[in-house]
Amino acid sequence: MTDEALAFPTARHDHAACIAEALDRAERLCAERGERLTTLRRQVLELVWSGHAPQGAYDLLEQLGQARGRVAPPTVYRALEFLQAQGLIHRIESLNAFIGCPIPEERHSGQFFICRLCGLAAELDVGAIDRAIDREATRLGFTIERRTVELQGLCRACREAQA
Amino acid sequence: MTDEALAFPTARHDHAACIAEALDRAERLCAERGERLTTLRRQVLELVWSGHAPQGAYDLLEQLGQARGRVAPPTVYRALEFLQAQGLIHRIESLNAFIGCPIPEERHSGQFFICRLCGLAAELDVGAIDRAIDREATRLGFTIERRTVELQGLCRACREAQA
DNA sequence: TCGGTCATGTTATAAAATAACATTTGCGCC
DNA sequence: GGCGCAAATGTTATTTTATAACATGACCGA
């Protein structure tokens, strides 16, 4: 894993390579775990990876319809559920949307920086943030099971474009 | 503000006092700002404060119906929007629900520890967490406008009750 | 008290998610 | 290869959450 995977996506990165790598890693990871990355699940994962902006379930539904004919919500939701369970995607709570995970091999929850203008999101996984949260949890006697850390605002490119 | 306001609510705290204080501060704060805390808004705020568990809009809608007769969704959503704009309540994204803010005078986004068993939530506002996040934002060149930090798990009481 | 603004009421609909049951597919086993 | 089970997908209906658009009412200053 290079640092690149955990930074803000640039306008000119090779996104085809992102998709290819994501699918490849998903294949490998599911194989290792004895899980089935079916055609449907693969298609949904690919659609989630169509960009670095979180995608809503109904957007995916519509796009998926082009590949498969009429598709009902549960079809997409079940695939998303599977992908999430495998750590291949994350759900962005503040957007009701999903984004591909660049480091699915390690279980983690990530911290998401989401630009309200371009819609792009960067996933980080910064130990210092987790640790600061853990300290408070310990103090409270709270056992964390799931973390949601989402920051909305302006990415550098959009802020500079504004000014 | 005592530390008590920013810790896990205990089973035996004087909740009537919580409600009274919250409404009182809301009145004062709105008066200072020249905002109108109407009967409706006050009722909704009171319902949000009916406990320390985040409340869904439709739960509030139903309860509100008992006080006002039939009430339509926009009525509640608009009141919630106002209360949120004034910092009197926070929205919990991971639950689609709302919770009263114990320190509405200072603008902040808070960090929420939410127990999946008893449903209670504690709002904290820990500088170390914000700073750890800020450092990453700076590194990315990202301008944060809105923060969502929500931790789900087990509160001490529920964990101890489990074992 | 007029006129404007803000708040609320009302109706309809959009958007997001899931329940329940039917059907199909993959796969180990004989 | 075919049988039978379990997992995956299809299908229909419904629930839950949220908002758009327009009508009416309340407050407040000139």
UniProtKB/TrEMBL annotation, chains A, B:
The keyword Transcription regulation applies. Pfam families: FUR. GO terms for biological process: negative regulation of DNA-templated transcription; regulation of secondary metabolite biosynthetic process. Its cofactor is Zn(2+). GO terms for molecular function: DNA-binding transcription factor activity; transcription cis-regulatory region binding; zinc ion binding. GO terms for cellular component: cytosol. InterPro entries: FUR, Fur_C, WH-like_DNA-bd_sf, WH_DNA-bd_sf. Zn(2+) binds at residues 115, 118, 155, 158. Binds 1 zinc ion per subunit. The keyword Transcription regulation applies. Keywords: DNA-binding, Metal-binding, Repressor, Transcription, Transcription regulation, Zinc. Belongs to the Fur family. This is Fur family transcriptional regulator, zinc uptake regulator. It comes from Tistlia consotensis USBA 355.
